[in-house]
Structures are given as structure tokens and as C-alpha cells.
Design a protein that fits this description.
Layout (H helix, E strand, L loop, with lengths): L5 H7 L5 E4 L1 E2 L8 E3 L4 E8 L7 E7 L14 E7 L2 E6 L5 E6 L4 E4 L4 E6 L6 E7 L1 H8 L2 H4 L22 E3 L3 E4 L1 E2 L8 E2 L8 E7 L4 E8 L7 E2 L7 E5 L2 E6 L6 E5 L4 E2 L6 E6 L5 E4 L2 E2 L26 E2 L6 H13 L16
Parallel strand pairs: 1-4, 13-16
Antiparallel strand pairs: 2-22, 3-4, 4-5, 5-11, 6-9, 6-11, 7-8, 7-10, 9-14, 12-13, 15-16, 16-17, 17-24, 17-25, 18-26, 19-22, 19-24, 20-21, 20-23
Helix pairs in contact: 1-2
Length: about 350
């Protein structure tokens, strides 16, 4: 006995790189290798902060080609990093749908539905990033043959509904949007989320009747978000902009990572982190995660109920007036290096009665 999780052992047998890291600078440049199972090129990304709550991989489809058909009993959210193409989804009962995607698209594969991805361009590879529940499912069943060959249709997840991947959806209070397909997450309309600071906007995404969820957040030029913390498995993909994030636990040194379009990081469970925009455009990020609102997994997985509430009131957010003054100073110095200035309202730092 070696105490190594089954998922990690299975990864080693897949013949593609296994990258274990806290931070990826650019998913579009991650080196890949031929992945026989999929018929494409791939690499596993084991994000240290996920701690087994979520898995991830990068996959590429060569110009004009397709991946092999596949089904599986883990959930999966896919963000398109480059290229355009189409995906066909079907089940054993005969329900079938095909939809097109492009760079910036986000979609969720219905649980255990057959699917096949096609590259619609004859002169360029298409690349996507998958965030999924592979570690939990693989470690629970420890049988890959079973995971990829369960003969069951979850018709409550997908049953050939005509507009399943049309991009249409339903809005709920709290900036929640239930859908199965986002044509371009980089331009999707967001709503004000005043509590998180920095003039930010947001939408909470519930997709494919799954236990995985995501959100999209954006904040303006020359601003930064309030520090907060949450559970594991929030895979923060930078989809627009340039900036940096700070990470720390009480009594430990602050770590800094500079990001750009294509970066990804996963804050460890209940570690404070804070995002800063020092670029020339608004900064936008997309964190797929395990645990949503519609199908909650409880406070430990994906819970967002306290991420915008003051720690002094039992929440998980540090208000601007309570943050270390050196953080604001660092931000303003970084902006000055690029010849710009902070757009933060000075009143935000004043303590209210």
C-alpha cells in the first residue's frame, strides 16, 4: 500500500504531462502530448489549491480534426481558449444536439452523455480548458472502465431539449443565470456586485443541472477587489485584463502572482486572496468550481453565501477600512510604474459608524 490517490495513479498511465502547480501563467502555452484516450493533445493540471475538490486538463484538437466520442460519470465545464468548432451531444435513447463554439465560449457537458468535439478550422488547432470532478469520482470508484462506460442516461440532465445549448437561460435573484451555454464569457453582460468592492460586476452561473457551477466577475481599470476567502476548487481563469493577486493566511508572508489573459490559479481553502487590476482594460475572471446554488454541496464546497460579508460579522471578507495599509500602497505604486493612477474612492477606506 502506498497511500497515493487512485486518480493520480490513473493520470500517470494516460501518457500526457501531469503539471502540479499553484499558478499557470498562460494556459494557451502549456506544453501538451498526444492523448490516445481522446485522440487529441493534452496535459493534466493538478492545481495545488484545489485539494482534490476539482481536477483540470488542457486539451487541443488539431486543425480540421475531431476528438474521439466519449462519455463519463464525472461532471465537466469547458472554457474555449483558442479556435472555434462544434460539439455533438447524444444519449442512448436517441436524443441528439450539436452546437458551435468559439474562443471565449463556456459550456457544461451533461453527466454521462456521449459527446464529441470537432475543430471547425482547417488551419489552426483548437484548445480548451476543462475543470471537472474527476478526482472525487476516480478516487471513489477507483475503476476507470466503469467511469467511462456506465450505460445510463441521466434524462433529468439532458434529453435532447431543442434549445439546450442555444445560450438561452433563466434569471434568478442574486445575479444568478441558469443556462447550459455561454457564447462568449468575455463579453457576457454582468450586474453590479457592490458588496465585493472595486466597482465590480458579476453573474453566478448554474449549468446543465449539475453540482458544478461558476461565476464571471469583472472590475474596472485602476481598482481592486476586497480580500476574501472560501472553500476549495475555485479555478480562477483570467479571461481578460492584466493584474496581480495576493494570497495569505494569518501570520504567514503574503505571496504575489502576476496574471494576464490565460492565467489560472486556485486559492487554497480559506486562504485570503485579493485581486488587483493594473492593466489598461477592465479585468475579468471565470472560476468554475464544485458546488453550486441549485444543487448545493454544503458550506465546504462551492458555498458563496459568506464571500461578500465582513469577517467581523461572521463572513469571509475583509473590508477596505480593515485591510493592511501596505496593500493599498503597493497597488498605487504598481499603477504609478505604468503611468496611471488609482480610481478607488478614498471614502472606501473610512470606517463607518
Amino acid at each position: 500500500m502506498d497511500n497515493i490517490p487512485y486518480y493520480e495513479k490513473w493520470q500517470q498511465g494516460e501518457g500526457i504531462p501531469v503539471i502540479k502547480t499553484f499558478f499557470v501563467q498562460d494556459l494557451k502555452k502549456v506544453p501538451l502530448a498526444h492523448w490516445e484516450r481522446t485522440g487529441g493533445e493534452g496535459a493534466f493540471i493538478n492545481m495545488e489549491g484545489a485539494e482534490g475538490a476539482t481536477g483540470a486538463y488542457v486539451c487541443e484538437i488539431s486543425a480540421g480534426l475531431s476528438l474521439k466520442p466519449q462519455r463519463q460519470i464525472y461532471e465537466e465545464m469547458i472554457y474555449v481558449l483558442r479556435g472555434r468548432g462544434a460539439t455533438t451531444i447524444w444519449n442512448d435513447k436517441g436524443a441528439k444536439q450539436t452546437f458551435e463554439w468559439q474562443e471565449g465560449s463556456l459550456f457544461s457537458l451533461p453527466l454521462n452523455a456521449w459527446h464529441q468535439h470537432f475543430n471547425g478550422q482547417g488551419n489552426e488547432a483548437a484548445r480548451f480548458f476543462s475543470v471537472n470532478s474527476m478526482p472525487i469520482v476516480f478516487n471513489l470508484f477507483h475503476n476507470a472502465d466503469f467511469i467511462f462506460s456506465v450505460p445510463y442516461d441521466f434524462t433529468d440532465r439532458f434529453n435532447g431539449e431543442p434549445e439546450y445549448f442555444s445560450g438561452k437561460g433563466k434569471s434568478y435573484p442574486g445575479r444568478v443565470w441558469e443556462t447550459n451555454f455561454i457564447a462568449d464569457a468575455r463579453t457576457f453582460k454582468l450586474e453590479e456586485w457592490k458588496e465585493r468592492g472595486g466597482g465590480g460586476t458579476n453573474v453566478m452561473l448554474e449549468m446543465a443541472n449539475g453540482s458544478m457551477a461558476a461565476h464571471i466577475s469583472e472590475f474596472p481599470i485602476g481598482t481592486y477587489k476586497k480580500a476574501h476567502r472560501h472553500g476549495p476548487g475555485f479555478n480562477v481563469i483570467i479571461i481578460k485584463g492584466k493584474g496581480f493577486s495576493l494570497f495569505w493566511r494569518a501570520g504567514e508572508p503574503i505571496k504575489r502572482y502576476d496574471w494576464q489573459d490565460g492565467s489560472v490559479f486556485t486559492p487554497p481553502p480559506m486562504m485570503f486572496h485579493q485581486h488587483f487590476n493594473i492593466g489598461a482594460t477592465p479585468a475579468r475572471y471565470l472560476p468554475p468550481r464544485l458546488g453550486g446554488i441549485k444543487f448545493s454541496l454544503g458550506e465546504q464546497f462551492g458555498d458563496i453565501s459568506k464571500v461578500d460579508k465582513d469577517v467581523k460579522a461572521g463572513g469571509n471578507q475583509i473590508e477596505y477600512c480593515d485591510e493592511d495599509p501596505s496593500i493599498r500602497k503597493m497597488f498605487e505604486e504598481e499603477l504609478a510604474k505604468s503611468g496611471t493612477y488609482s480610481r478607488m474612492n478614498p471614502d472606501l477606506y473610512k470606517r463607518t459608524k
